[in-house]
């Protein structure tokens, strides 16, 4: 009997990012809705066909989306906040929830577990959810009629769906979950009636530290779902870590359990050994790494599979990637400029499907295990093992990195040096990456624009935006990051030990994609990366210009990282390289340096017991990069898309003089985190959401500032947007920043009046 194989989800974007291009063309009014639907269907079917041709038995359907799969679910359940009800047709409401409109702020967007993918957070208010469409059924029918595929509908399971939503109103969490059960039941009944065999219910929250009492709820819920559609095979799919409460989870009334044997290897394997696996269930074994890009070592994977076959018979085993392939690029084969040794060591989504199929064949037919010659070569390559880097590291780490003067003393020296007014204003770094900027870069890359002409172009942009910042009367300027494609890719291209692709795109949020660098070797500094542009900007103004670097933890977390040494070591190497850039910026007269760490939170392990170890090396890496500067050099850092409540202590240990944090898309809730904590360093709580084209009003921003002043001292508060402005247009940015400066002025005025009143009274 053939060992089954399966896939959990496929990248939506298409090998040439056709998906992104179609969406953006629609938003810009260049194509109409019919054309968009047609193009989306073409991409969807082509993705399915690709999987069919690879030899995948269980092909996921309904993982495809026009923006985000959580948003699809929300709309399917009619969880549409009232502010969007008037946005128009179904599609218009859908995109309004994702992107906001003039009248309505967008739904919150946040990270999907520990990945760089963002989902739209459903807002559960007191309304009753109803099933308005059966999307999985539609997707199943389409795959079947168009391509003859017996698809496996994929949906986020009820526990995870509610867990990842925001709850308003009085209903308890359990009540919310129960509200959805009849809706899920109906979806499943209809699928069963259609003759569907397997349905994948994604419950990645089962790998989190969930309370034991939730297992009762989950058991009850799955009992009901099973009874609703007893003929249907339910696959309870987990990923990104090993599951908690193994014994109870594997006893749930479902036919299949999906476990991640890559990222959850230790935990899942320990549980298998201890509790074994129920003989009446299928084990969907995540064997091929869906989060990283290195080609699998077939020998090691075969050993793992043989081990699993001690617990489950081959007729009840399915081989699959560890998670959806959403998190890796589409195909390696079209890359033309990669070093052959590196290229042959890689597997993206397409290649990973072949790996899955091949493993099944080897296992079944006892076929030949292909030795991974390229990976072996890479392992012994001098690029991987640089004595100079390793010596440097050992020397640097021989003492704990920390600033020589404590913050309270530094702050006084810095205030003397800079003389900032109360509530200083600044931005986060990037200004619009207009099509003009991208076009120029493309022309330069293709040799149509000379090096010199490109440099001149970048300088013009810097001049233009220094001028704009003067007009706006911001307090700390930035150069605008026009020379950067992306804050991580840019550094990846300039450091040694890191390769980059031409087309290795991965979806980050909505239509926005990133091309994560490939860290294959020891990372080393080779040349200055940022000094020229920042120093140039600094000559154009008397205001301080912030030097702008991406921090070591973020470069690590937003890259694909070699898997032969601990991530911690790689992070230190990056930190040591960036440390040299910091020194060079200081030497070039830059006295405010921002080291962005937006991915610090994202790297946090899903299980709390692993947090301390991670935070320890992450903080050390940041300090390695920044702590050697002069007392009067002000270190800024920036974070976005994060929940910081539970890691304020680590943030404080970074010892940055000023931190800017995203707050507005979580509708100001972050401010609460500071209520009972003593955070004494400089802090800018983002006063408006940059991910939406909506221009914020002076009043709402003034309100945000005042709200922050309830818990923070006016001496420590900075005023800034949530994040960089690269995705916005010039008009949007200028209008929003004008209002932001005005809001700061307004509050400053009120505050000074208030303060002088206090002084008068105390005299
Ligand atoms: N790595 C990373 N992760 C992150 C973030 C981040 O900034 N970087 N921020 C958060 C997510 N936010 C994001 C915000 C914007 C974009 C973004 O704008 N991405 C661009 C790609 C950026 C890029 O590399 N641009 C290239 C252009 C690539 C391109 O499309 N070229 C065109 C031609 C250029 C043109 O005419 O537009 C082509 O080749 O056909 C450049 O600047 O040079 C996009 O999707 O469009 C991505 C993520 C969290 N995770
Ligand atoms: C995702 S954080 C972005 C920080 C970067 N300095 C920018 O302004 O774009
Ligand atoms: Zn940011």
Automatic annotation (TrEMBL):
Job of this protein: Catalyzes the transfer of a methyl group from 5-methyltetrahydrofolate to homocysteine resulting in methionine formation.
Pathway field: Amino-acid biosynthesis; L-methionine biosynthesis via de novo pathway; L-methionine from L-homocysteine (MetE route): step 1/1
Enzyme class: transferase
UniProt-annotated binding residues for 5-methyltetrahydropteroyltri-L-glutamate: 17-20, 111, 116, 512-513, 558, 602
Record bears the keyword Transferase: yes
Residue positions binding Zn(2+) 1: 638, 640, 723
Catalytic reactions on record: 5-methyltetrahydropteroyltri-L-glutamate + L-homocysteine = tetrahydropteroyltri-L-glutamate + L-methionine
The enzyme's E.C. designation: 2.1.1.14
Cofactor note: Binds 1 zinc ion per subunit. Binds 2 Zn(2+) ions per subunit.
Protein family membership: Belongs to the vitamin-B12 independent methionine synthase family.
Molecular function (Gene Ontology), one example: zinc ion binding
Active site: 691 (proton donor)
Binding site for L-homocysteine: 428-430, 481, 596
Annotated residues for binding of Zn(2+): 638, 640, 662, 723
Domain Cobalamin-independent methionine synthase MetE C-terminal/archaeal as annotated: residue spans: 423-744
CDD domains in UniProt: CIMS_C_terminal_like, CIMS_N_terminal_like
UniProt name for this protein: 5-methyltetrahydropteroyltriglutamate--homocysteine methyltransferase
Binding site for L-methionine: 428-430, 481, 596
PANTHER family for the chain: 5-METHYLTETRAHYDROPTEROYLTRIGLUTAMATE--HOMOCYSTEINE METHYLTRANSFERASE
Protein's UniProt keywords contain Amino-acid biosynthesis: yes
SUPFAM superfamilies hit by this protein: UROD/MetE-like
Gene3D superfamilies given in the database record: 3.20.20.210
Species, as recorded: Aneurinibacillus aneurinilyticus ATCC 12856
GO BP, sorted A to Z: methionine biosynthetic process; methylation
Requisite cofactors: Zn(2+)
Residues reported in the UniProt entry to bind Zn(2+) 2: 662
Superkingdom of the organism of origin: Bacteria
């Amino acid at each position: 009997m053939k060992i089954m194989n399966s896939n959990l989800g496929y990248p939506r974007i298409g090998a040439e990012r056709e998906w992104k291009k179609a969406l953006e063309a629609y938003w810009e009014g260049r194509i109409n809705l019919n054309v968009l639907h047609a193009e989306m269907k073409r991409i969807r079917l082509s993705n399915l066909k690709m999987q069919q041709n690879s030899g995948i038995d269980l092909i996921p359907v309904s993982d495809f989306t026009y923006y985000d799969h959580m948003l699809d679910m929300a709309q399917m359940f009619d969880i549409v906040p009232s502010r969007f009800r008037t946005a128009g047709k179904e599609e218009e409401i859908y995109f309004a929830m994702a992107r906001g409109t003039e009248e309505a702020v967008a739904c919150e967007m946040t990270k999907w577990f520990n990945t760089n993918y963002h989902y739209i957070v459903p807002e559960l208010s007191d309304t009753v959810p109803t099933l308005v469409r059966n999307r999985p059924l539609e997707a199943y029918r389409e795959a079947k009629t168009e391509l003859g595929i017996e698809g496996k509908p994929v949906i986020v399971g009820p526990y995870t769906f509610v867990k990842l939503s925001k709850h308003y109103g009085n209903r308890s969490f359990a009540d919310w979950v129960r509200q959805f059960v009849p809706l899920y039941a109906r979806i499943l009944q209809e699928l069963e009636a259609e003759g569907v065999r397997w349905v994948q219910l994604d419950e990645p929250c089962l790998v989190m530290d969930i309370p034991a009492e939730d297992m009762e709820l989950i058991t009850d819920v799955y009992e009901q779902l099973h009874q609703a559609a007893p003929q249907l095979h339910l696959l309870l799919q987990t990923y990104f870590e090993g599951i908690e409460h193994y014994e109870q989870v594997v006893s749930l009334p479902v036919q299949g359990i999906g476990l991640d044997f890559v990222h959850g290897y230790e935990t899942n394997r320990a549980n298998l050994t201890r509790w074994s696996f129920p003989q009446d269930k299928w084990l969907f074994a995540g064997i091929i790494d869906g989060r990283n890009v290195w080609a699998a070592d077939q020998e090691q994977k075969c050993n793992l599979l043989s081990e699993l076959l001690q617990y489950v018979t081959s007729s009840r085993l399915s081989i699959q990637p560890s998670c959806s392939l959403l998190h890796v690029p589409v195909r390696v084969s079209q890359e033309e400029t990669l070093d052959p040794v590196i290229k042959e060591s890689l597997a993206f989504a397409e290649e990973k499907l072949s790996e899955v199929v091949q493993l099944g064949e080897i296992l079944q037919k006892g076929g030949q295990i292909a030795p991974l010659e390229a990976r072996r070569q890479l392992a012994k390559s001098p690029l991987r093992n640089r004595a100079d880097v390793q010596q440097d590291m050992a020397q640097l780490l021989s003492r704990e990195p920390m600033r020589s003067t404590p913050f309270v003393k530094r702050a006084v020296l810095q205030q003397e040096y800079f003389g900032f007014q109360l509530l200083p204003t600044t931005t986060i770094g990037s200004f619009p990456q207009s099509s003009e900027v991208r076009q120029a870069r493309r022309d330069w890359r293709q040799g149509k624009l000379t090096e010199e002409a490109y440099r001149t172009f970048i300088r013009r942009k810097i001049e233009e935006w220094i001028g704009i910042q003067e007009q706006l009367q911001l307090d700390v300027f930035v150069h605008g990051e026009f020379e950067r494609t992306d804050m991580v890719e840019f550094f990846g291209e300039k450091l040694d030990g890191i390769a980059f692709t031409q087309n290795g795109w991965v979806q980050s949020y909505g239509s926005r994609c990133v091309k994560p660098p490939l860290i294959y070797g020891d990372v080393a500094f080779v040349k200055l990366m940022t000094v020229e542009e920042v120093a140039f900007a600094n000559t154009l103004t008397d205001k301080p210009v912030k030097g702008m670097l991406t921090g070591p933890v973020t470069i690590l977390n937003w890259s694909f990282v070699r898997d032969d040494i601990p991530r911690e070591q790689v992070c230190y190497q990056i930190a040591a390289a960036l440390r040299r850039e910091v020194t060079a910026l200081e030497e070039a007269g830059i006295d405010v340096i921002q080291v962005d760490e937006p991915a610090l939170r994202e790297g946090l392990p899903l299980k709390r017991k692993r947090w301390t170890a991670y935070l320890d090396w992450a903080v050390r890496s940041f300090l390695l990069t920044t702590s050697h500067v002069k007392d009067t050099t002000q270190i800024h850092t920036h974070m976005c898309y994060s929940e910081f409540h539970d890691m304020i202590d680590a943030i404080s240990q970074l010892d940055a003089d000023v931190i800017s944090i995203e707050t507005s898309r979580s509708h100001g809730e972050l401010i609460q985190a500071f209520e009972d904590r003593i955070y004494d360093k400089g802090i800018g709580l983002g006063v408006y959401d940059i991910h939406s084209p909506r221009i914020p009003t002076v009043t709402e921003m003034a309100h945000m500032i005042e709200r922050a002043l309830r818990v923070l001292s006016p001496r420590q508060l900075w005023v800034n947007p949530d994040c960089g402005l690269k995705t916005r247009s010039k008009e949007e940015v200028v209008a929003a920043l004008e209002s932001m400066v005005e809001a700061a002025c307004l509050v400053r005025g009120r505050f000074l009046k208030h303060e002088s009143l206090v002084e008068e009274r105390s005299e």
